Amino acid sequence: MAKLLDKQRYKCALGAMQTVQAIERALPVLHSGPGCAQKLSESTGSSGYFSPNIFPCTSINEKDVVFGGVKKLNSTIENALKVIDADLYVVLTGCIPEIVGDDTQEVVSRFKDSEKPVIYAPTAGFKGNNYIGHEQVVDAIIDQYLEKTDEKEKGLVNIWADVPYQDLFWLGNIRELEKLVAELGLTPNTIFGYKRGIENINKIPKAEYNLLISPWVGLKNVKKLERKFGTPYLHYKTLPIGATETSKFLRAVAEFTGVSKEKTEEVIKKHEDYYFYLIERYADLFLENRVINKQFSVVSDAHYALGITKFLANDLGLVPAKQFITDDTPQSYREDIKKEFKELNFGIEAEAVFETDGYKIHSQIKEHDYHGYPLILGGYYEKELTEDLKGNFLNISWPVQNKVVFDSYYAGYSGGIRLIEDIYTIAVQRFN
Question: What is the CATH number of domain 13-144?
């Protein structure tokens, strides 16, 4: 019997058009049906240099299913190169061309001598969701565009984090991670966001290190970079939010890259002194039980579920109820991620539940006794549920419908302060 999935939190692999869009002056070229392109363009929540509404698309139809869409793809790429001024053209395939056997690789290879690079990523929906599609795009850049070099730039660190646009705070988070790494005396290199396009992509093979900040997304990519370019990687599984995790993060990066302990501790002390100064100013508010209940649940992908759980438990002393991971994490990563939820301060452990069905998630939240007003951090789907439970709700994950984010962030010391502000602003409103 077919299974109905309620309140799904991800898109199909073709949603990787968002990953391409996050690279400045990179253009997705879609080899798919028009319905796929339109539906995904409505969910990007962004326009930017190239609006999703103008992404070139083969718009394949019934005739193409019978006779193939290779000719149409060739002409679409050809015309995109003529009329759209981009630095990188990334062909993304939908389900239909891969089912009927269109040789996308062969078509793209015809443009290897073009003035601008053209690459492709197999992103059929049946191959996975947009988290997998994100990895496919980065793989395509590594395999089809980047070339080996003996040149290494001392202190250059490629930083890889979560999936752009799927994560509402991706731009601010990665900028904050850049700043923290730079304070250690290293040179951060990222490829997503403002002025981080093709020039930064070209620097990837020259880096001394790769730094992955993610429970699982991107791990295959940094392993491939190590094989191809000999670049060692540090896999830091938790998005550092607040003092406890950010200080731990900085020490791990410093040890991996050879930054002196004295330099590292100097940076940490400067940030922690100001962080705890701010915390002390509102200590009475945090200790007042009537403002917010001690128990919380996060409903998000592994990236935020893990980062926010550690922050709320380790820095604020809140008690985790069940934490729900909604990104359909591959089975091979799940046990390692579960272990991370057991490594909290004060001997606290959290139960991580991998669940993609919103109905089942909501049922488990309703069944749990939060011993007061529950704190629920999740997608907009959880808003009505939390209101019914007379709890406090913060929209921190997809889908987001009650806020606009330009470059706000939750990463780092100052990101932790912002998250505290957002949570307690909502909590105190119930008494005003």
Answer: 3.40.50.1980
